[in-house]
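Sample pair:
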Amino acid sequence: MKKLSVSLFGFALLAALGGAGYGQGLPLPYYYSEGPNASPKEPIRPALTLPTEEAPQAIPAPPFASFPTVTLDQCVQAAQSSAPNLLLAKATLDSAAAQFTQIRAKNGLTLSASGSYAHADNLPGVGATTPTAFSAASAVSAGGSSIGENASGGLALSGPSTSVNATAHYLSEEQTLPSNDQLTGFGLSGSQTLFDGYLGGRASAVVGQADYSFKNAQVTYDATLKSTAYQVKQAYYALLGDQNTVRTDQVSVVQYTQNAKLVQAELAAQLATELDLQQAQITLRQAELSLRAAENTVETDRRNLSLAIGWPLDKKYQVANVPAPAVPTSDAAQALRIADANRPELKALALQIASAKVNLALQKAQYFPVVSATGSAQLLQDWTKNTTSGTYTVGGSISAPLLEGGLLRAQVDAANAQLQSLDVQQSQERQSIAIAVDAALFGVKNAQDQLDLAGQSVKAAEGQYNLERSKLAVGLATNLDVLTALSALTTAQGASVQAETGYSLAVLNLITAMGL
């Protein structure tokens, strides 16, 4: 009968204090420090005053609750315009574009114009020079000046393999007999390299190499863009998970605070021991320390996210809830095919190999002779004498190395060795990517299993806690049993939050491994 009296009193105290401490949906507290087989306590005197009911303790808002909320899309977009590493990559890309433009211009066709005017005469008091019409025509033909009015102009089209020049001269010759001569000259000359050992010309090969370098810079920029987005998302999900951890720890602190108060009330009603109270206070202190650590982690996570975005480190904000990223594929063969087509390392190596092949062909081209063709034509018109004369030339040239001390062979060997090295690197990179993709797929599967297990653990811990609480109400469990169950529940809840973060990060790792 005494044991039954204690249990009935426990039900009464449960009704009086349980709703007071847990009206906010918090787990009910525990009450008895001794099991049902323990010796009955001394009868409670009717004059004992029980604690009065208190209003349920509300869960305080986390420190970051008053900060403005930012979304994942806002963070990624902000990083694209302010992330330091992305700004550096953009500057590198702009520099590569400028270099490519310069090389293409230097190895392309250019058109230029020229013009001149001069008046020539004899010095006063010095013997006069009296040129003949023939000497004046020669001067015009050579583009020089003769006594009188001289004017000339021309156009020049030039390139690595082509050169065309067109000129026009006018001369009003003085002191020729019987009167001044009016002479006009026209000239056209050009040269063309027909073959220099490389089909399309070595200049086109140089431009092609510059184009590969520019495309490589574009690949590097795109890789930096993806890497920046990955870093931002990674930091975002880490901050989100730790924000949720703070909220979970706050609930735990409220639970343990209410629990300590009720154990204090039990102690006053002689239904608990000093050891029970000490255990309740210790668990409360542990929960408070855990909450403080979680709040500090949130501050660190926010700084890491700001650093990845390019925001000031003291910027205050909180991140909005966002679902985990979608898994691109769970098929290993498909994931590897996507990675082979999208990983920037493979794209960069492919461009480097293409450029190395061009370089090897250029070095081999030096063994071949260079064949060129030349030609020119000149027309002279003497308007005074109404005579016309003209000349033309047609020719060609060929040049080839005869003795170079093995230089060409060494250059070819070096270019060939570079190409072979890049081929090996490409093969190794593909193998490394295959390993990374397989590991990332396993990581996603394992993180999903961990998340499912964490959910089951929370449900099991909730069931165990409710069971221990019910057993406590009828004297079949102790305060320590319920406290242990409550600790297991809060640990499971925290692990569930971490499992959600781990799953999101695992999916992000797979996306990065596939080059998406």
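The first strand starts at residue 69 and ends at 70.
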